[in-house]
Amino acid sequence: MRNKKLCLLLLLTSCGSQIAVRDNASNPTALEEVRIALLDVRQAYSKQQMDIDLLEEKLAKLSPKPLNRNLSSILETRIQNLEKLTGQIRKDLESLSSHAGQTTKSLTQYRNQINALDKRLKDIAELKGTLDSISKAINAPASSKTYKVRSGDSLEKIARKHHTTIGALKQANGLTSNTILIGQELRIPD
Question: N or C: which end of the chain has fewer CB within 10 A?
C-alpha cells in the first residue's frame, strides 16, 4: 500500500515538475528547486523501499515456513488416527474399570460364601467328633463291672483277680502303658 502511494506521489511530482519546467523554462532558479525536490522525493522513496524490504525479511524470519502439502496431509491423517486410537483406548479403559468393579463385587460375594461354607464345615467336623464319641461309647463292650484302683494294685493283680488278661484290661480302658493311678476306675471286660 505504501509502495503505491509513493509511486503515485513520484508520478505527480514528476508531472508537476515538467509542468513547472515548461512554465518556468526561463527561470533557472525554479528549475533548480524542482530538481532538488525531485531528488528529495527519490531519496525518500529509496529509503521507504529499503525499510519495506527489511520489514519483509524480519517477517519472513518470524513466520514459520510453509509445510509441504503432502507432509501436512500425512500429519493431519496421523493426528486423526491418534485421536481415534485415544478415544478407543479411553472406551476400553472405561469398560475395564466397569468390569473390575463387577469382578470385585463378585469376589466379595464369593468370599462371603466361602466363609459361610468354612463355618458349616467346622460345625460338621464338631458334629462328626461328637458322633464318633457316641459311636465308640455305644460300640464299646458293655461292662457291668468296674474296679477302682487302690494302693498296691497293678494291672497284673487286677487281671488275675477278675480272671482276664492285662491286654484285655488295656484294650477295654484305652491304655497304652501299664501305668495306673490310685482312684482310677477301670472297666473289667467280660
Answer: N
For 103-114, how does the pLDDT look when each residue is reduced to its tens digit (9 = 90+)? Answer: 888 899 999 999
Cα 30 to chain center, whole Å?
90
Residue whose grid cell is 497304652: 176
178 close to 154: Cβ distance less than 8 angstroms:
yes
- Cell numbers 494294685 correspond to what residue? 153
CA dihedral for 38, 42, 43, 47, sign (positive or negative): positive
Per-residue confidence (pLDDT) for residue 40, from 0 to 100: 84
- Grid coordinates in use for 8? 503515485
- Alpha-carbon distance of 33 to 48, in angstroms, equals 22
Q: For 45-76, how does the pLDDT look when each residue is reduced to its tens digit (9 = 90+)?
A: 888 888 888 888 887 777 666 556 677 788 88
Note the helical H segments in the chain.
2-23, 28-62, 69-139, 155-161, 166-173
pTM of the model: 0.32
Residue showing cell 501299664: 178
